[in-house]
Amino acid sequence: MSDQQRDARECPTWVSGQRPRTHGWAPADRPRMQIHVEGAWRWATVRQRQDWPDGRVAYQVDILLPDPEFGRDAHYIRSYWWDPETVRPSRHPAIGWQLRHTPGTGGAILHRDDCPDAGGGKLDRAAAFSVLQERNISGCRKCRPEADLT
Length: 150
Prior knowledge:
By secondary structure, the chain is mostly beta strands. It contains one helix and ten strands, in the order E-E-E-E-E-E-E-E-E-H-E. The chain has two domains: 21-89, no CATH class; 97-149, no CATH class. The strands form two sheets. Strands 1, 2, 3, 4, 5 and 6 form a six-stranded antiparallel beta sheet that branches.
């Protein structure tokens, strides 16, 4: 048996047959989860839960994945089958953001409130979206705050 963590399995888009029952959340209330994709645990924001007629459950999420065309991470909407080995629920949805200045750089890093590296001034959704447009401010690579701002 391999010690390597396997990736979550992507759920195909429903096209025919019995459609899944779905449940969605308002953008401010969307839960977060971590999903093991492309060899790493990645933060994702849940858009929808899908209960399939055969009893399986999938989650449609907004997730940042590497995009070789752009040379950086990009947002994708994907659905993954529930599997406790490859999909981990988070404690709670984002309730806010924090801007932590990086000494000596003139820049800052935006974090979600529930990020272990968060610190600094608290921001609401509009302010967090605005600061991410600044060239010297980036999103935390651990908590991916930009996923909640789309």
